[in-house]
Amino acid sequence: MKALIPAAGLGTRFLPVTKSVPKEMLPVVDRPQIQYIVEEGLASGADEVVIINSREKKIIEDYFTENAHLVSHLRAKGKDAYADEVQHVGELPVSYVYQDEPLGLGHAVHCAAEKTGDEPFFVLLGDVIVPGNDMLVRMKEVSDAHNGASVIAVLPVPEDQVSRFGIIAGEAVSDDVWKVESLVEKPAVEDAPSNLAVFGRYLLSPRVMDLLAEVKPGAGGEIQLTDAMDAVLKEEEMYALIIDGDEGFDLGTVDSWLETNNILYQRRFGK
Ligand code: UTP
Questions:
Q1: 105: Cβ below 6 Å to ligand 1?
Q2: Can you give the pLDDT at residue 221?
Q3: Average pLDDT for the chain
Q4: Which backbone phi and psi does 186 adopt, to 5 degrees?
Q5: pLDDT digits (tens, 9 = 90+) for 128-144
Q6: Model pLDDT, residue 194
Q7: Which atom of ligand 1 is least distant from the CA of 200?
């Protein structure tokens, strides 16, 4: 099973910095956000972590490449803790496929179709990080308990904020699992079928990959992952795992990125 990390977007919300620094390379405390996502992918039990990259963002690949010269320089200076960190990053097993144009998240995911073949796969969005690294493992358990069905992570949000998110409709099958009936993109408060918002972690059946090939451009002229998930709901079951607010941290806007930095800095250094 592969873990896919789409990273080929333009990062418009972080301009102007993203003119030359990819959004995925912005720091959370002292490491780029994509390092957290790669490590979470590796902790999921996936046999390969695949970054869907843009050819303009090679700096992401440089980061995950070994730098023996820097490591030996640091060791010679007695800076072994830094040397260990640099060595660790260079040894993380990551592979790449390319999206030549940012035609949407669904299109980016489909660029990895040859990697996933006829297996289910994880998708990890860079908009959120999960420092506990255990969410995908729990999603896989839910999938295994329901004949390999697709599973998405959902987060309860305040009722008056539902119109900012993709929201699920469905019914509870246990304390923390719902069976999904449909997905509603940014509903008006009065139309929202629940307050459970889609959070950027997905375990998707191979049928979603097939359907992505057929999805036509939707909102914003982009090929949306949600449209393929809507289509698969007509053929297969899908479940949602309800997560806690303190398990995942948002990085999607400048405000939330700064707030996440503050929280994780305090957690790490107790300041
Ligand atoms: P986002 O919409 O959050 O990222 O997509 P973005 O497109 O880079 O940001 P804005 O909207 O311009 O501010 C979620 C993830 O999907 C990737 C992004 O890199 C991000 O990690 N993505 C998005 C792609 O890989 N390709 C795309 O065509 C769109």
A1: yes
A2: 87
A3: 95
A4: 45, 65
A5: 999 888 999 999 999 99
A6: 96
A7: 14
Q: What is each CA distance from 213 to 8, 12, 110, 178, 224, in whole angstroms?
A: 18, 26, 7, 28, 11
The set of residues, in sequence order, having a beta carbon less than 8 Å from that of 239 and lying 6+ positions away, is 142, 143, 146, 149, 150, 151, 152, 173, 177, 178, 179, 180
Look up residue 101 and give its amino acid: E
> To test the ligand 1 pocket, which listed residue (33, 52, 53, 105) has its Cβ within 8 A of the most ligand atoms?
105
The pLDDT of residue 129 is: 94
Dist. CA 133 → ligand 1 center (Å):
22
In the predicted model, what is the mean pLDDT of residues 201-222? Answer: 92
CA of 168 to the centre of ligand 1 (A): 21
